[in-house]
Structures are given as C-alpha cells and as structure tokens.
C-alpha cells in the first residue's frame, strides 16, 4: 500500500460575510508531496487561522478544495473508484487534537478498536481480534487490562490519545495526518506521544504529517518542516536548516516569538497586530468533523 500523497495547487475558499469580496481564502495555492517511502515526519507549522486544519481536512477528503487537487497514488481522491477509496481510507489515518470528542461516551473504548477490526477485516476470529487489539495497545505502551472495559471518561487524555494510536497501529497506514494531537497534553505525556510516532516511522514505515503551532515539538520530531502563513506555504526544508537559517520573514518572526526559558533572557518584545494579523481562533464549526467511534 506504499504510495504518495500530493496537494497540487489546492485552494480553499469559504463564504464569509465580514470579509471584503464575501469570501476568505483559507488555503491559497498550496502544493506539496508526502512520500510513503522512505517514511518521514513532516511538520506543518503556522499560527492560528493560517489554514492548517483546512489542509488536514482536504488531505483526509473531509473537505473538497474549491480549486486544485489532492492526489493519492497519483489519483484525485475525489474521483477514486470503490476499491481505491477503501484503500485510501485505510492507508491515510487521522489523529485529532481532542480524542474525547471522537469517542462515543456511552460505549467502552474497546468498541473503537473492535470497529476497526471489523471494518477493515483485520481478524477472522474473536480471539485473533483480541490478540491484535492487545498487541497494539502494548505497542503504544498501554496495558490492555488497564484500559479495556473502560469508558472514555475513565481514561486520561494521554491514554485516550494513545488508544487512537493503537487503532493506527492496527491499521498500519502509510500516512498519519495528525492535527494538533498533543496540544492538550502535558509535557511528559506529549513526549511519550511523539516517541510513539517516531517508533511508528522507524518500525512500521509510517509517514506523518504533523500539524502544530508549537515549534518545540517540531524540533523534537526532526525530519522536515513546512511553514504556512495566511494559507500559503512559504518555506519547506529539514527542521535544522529551516530553524537555523530561515529564509522567509514569517519563519523568522515565528522563531523570534518563542519564549526563552532562560530567566536571564526574558521575552521582552511584543508582537504587534500588524505583524500577526488575524490571530482569530476558528470557531467550533471550523474544526474537523470527526467520526464518532
Ligand atoms: N468551514 C469554514 N467556514 C468558514 N470559514 C472557515 C471554515 N473552516 C475554516 N475557516 C476559516 O479558515 C481559516 C483557516 O482555518 P483553519 O482551521 O484551517 O486554521 P488553523 O491553522 O488550523 O488554526 P488553529 O491553529 O487555530 O487550529 C480561518 O480564518 C477560519 O476561520
Ligand atoms: Mg487547526
């Protein structure tokens, strides 16, 4: 199932009454490729409202771009035949910010894993299915007896997020599209999560598009980074190069805005509204419509 994901000239406009012209361009002529082999981690970094989640939704087929194409294995994802679409749905897996929102609170978390086993026909017997679920939970450093049989609210945010990763582990996709997956986790749990993504890359050959506004996670993951501002990609390259020799003024601004943890080196400069305009937080309606598991 090794393949390639490509955005070619993707544009996403939304109707917006308060904007001159009546629409805003959330994604503006964005093109990039993600290769399944060799597996890579590519971070997409940019401020709030820059179009990151919209790109994730385009890539996942949740939102059809107003112009341009999203290609999987060289084919437009909105024109795949049934068999190709099924393969794409398995091979490109989402991980979202708030795992609580995608679990059905009335069902034990086991159900999300069993649904994956059934939907993708991963095991022929119940015993084999359970074995697979337990193996995947251990792969994300969860003890099956500590999580199976529990309801979503009985788990921590970090545990819920790792159950989503266990689901990914079972499906072995070529691509993970992770939209701010660690934003709600504390530093230690966050590191744990990032380490699992790195394991997935090394051990199972998965490529991740990692969406974040947090440059410290980009540093930690390494690999490549793409910088987006106002719907446009302005820079792409290895993390160390982009971080140490940024070429675009926006990347420099982004780097300058990281608070220094050194108490002798206080963060004194203020970012003016002119520098970072429209820092609006998207409303709930702009968040990806995630399937309830
Ligand atoms: N369905 C929609 N209808 C109207 N406007 C939208 C819709 N989805 C997104 N937008 C707008 O498009 C722009 C980009 O939003 P997007 O959610 O992609 O940003 P983001 O980079 O993910 O931000 P954040 O870091 O806050 O998650 C924003 O101005 C947002 O308000
Ligand atoms: Mg977002």
Protein model, in words:
- It is built from eleven helices and ten strands.
- 35% of the residues lie in helices and 23% in strands.
- The chain is α/β, with parallel strands linked by helices and 293 residues long.
- The strands form two sheets. It has a six-stranded mixed β-sheet with strand order 6-7-8-3-9-10, with helices on both faces. A four-stranded antiparallel β-sheet has the order 2-1-4-5, with helices on one face.
- Residues 278-290 have low confidence and may be disordered.
- It has a single domain (4-282), classed as 3-Layer(aba) Sandwich (Rossmann fold).
- A hairpin with a 2-residue loop joins strand 9 (224-229) and strand 10.
- Helix 4 runs parallel beside helix 7 and helix 5 (126-139) packs across helix 7 (157-171).
- It binds adenosine-5'-triphosphate and magnesium ion.
- Magnesium ion (MG) binds next to helix 1.
- GO terms for molecular function: ATP binding.
- InterPro entries: AAA+_ATPase, ABC_transporter-like_ATP-bd, Oligopep_ABC_C, P-loop_NTPase.
- Residues 264-281 have a biased composition (Basic and acidic residues).
- This is ABC transporter ATP-binding protein.
- Residues 283-293 have a biased composition (Polar residues).
CATH topology-level name: Rossmann fold
**For the report, how would you describe the main beta sheet?**
6 strands, mixed
What share of the residues lie within helices? 25-40%
Order of helices and strands: EEEHEEHEHHHHHEHEHEEHH
CATH architectural category: 3-Layer(aba) Sandwich
Helix count equals 11
Q: What is the β-strand count? A: 10
Give the domain tally.
1
Catalogue the ligands: adenosine-5'-triphosphate, magnesium ion
Shape by Cα distribution:
globular
């Amino acid at each position: 199932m090794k393949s390639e994901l490509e955005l070619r000239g993707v544009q996403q406009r939304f109707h917006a009454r308060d904007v001159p012209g009546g629409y805003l361009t959330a994604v503006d002529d964005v093109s990039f490729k993600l290769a399944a082999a060799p597996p890579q981690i590519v971070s997409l970094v940019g401020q709030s409202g820059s179009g990151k989640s919209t790109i994730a939704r385009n890539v996942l087929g949740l939102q059809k771009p107003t112009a341009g194409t999203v290609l999987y294995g060289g084919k437009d994802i909105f024109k795949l035949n049934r068999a190709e679409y099924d393969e794409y749905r398995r091979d490109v897996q989402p991980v979202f910010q708030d795992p609580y929102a995608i679990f059905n609170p009335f069902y034990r978390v086991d159900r999300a894993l069993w649904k994956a086993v059934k939907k993708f026909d991963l095991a022929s017997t119940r015993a084999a299915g359970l074995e697979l679920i337990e193996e995947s939970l251990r792969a994300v450093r969860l003890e099956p007896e500590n999580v199976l049989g529990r309801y979503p609210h009985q788990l921590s945010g970090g545990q819920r997020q790792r159950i989503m990763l266990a689901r990914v582990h079972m499906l072995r996709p070529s691509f993970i599209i992770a939209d701010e997956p660690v934003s709600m986790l504390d530093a230690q749990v966050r590191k744990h999560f990032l380490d699992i993504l790195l394991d997935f890359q090394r051990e199972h050959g998965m490529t991740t598009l990692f969406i974040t506004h947090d440059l410290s996670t980009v540093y930690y993951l390494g690999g490549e980074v793409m910088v987006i501002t106002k719907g446009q990609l302005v820079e792409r390259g290895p993390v160390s190069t982009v971080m140490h020799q940024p070429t675009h003024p926006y990347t420099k601004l982004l780097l300058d805005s990281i608070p220094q943890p050194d108490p002798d080196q206080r963060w004194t400069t203020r970012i003016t509204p002119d520098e970072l305009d429209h820092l609006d937080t998207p409303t709930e309606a702009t968040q990806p419509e995630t399937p309830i598991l």
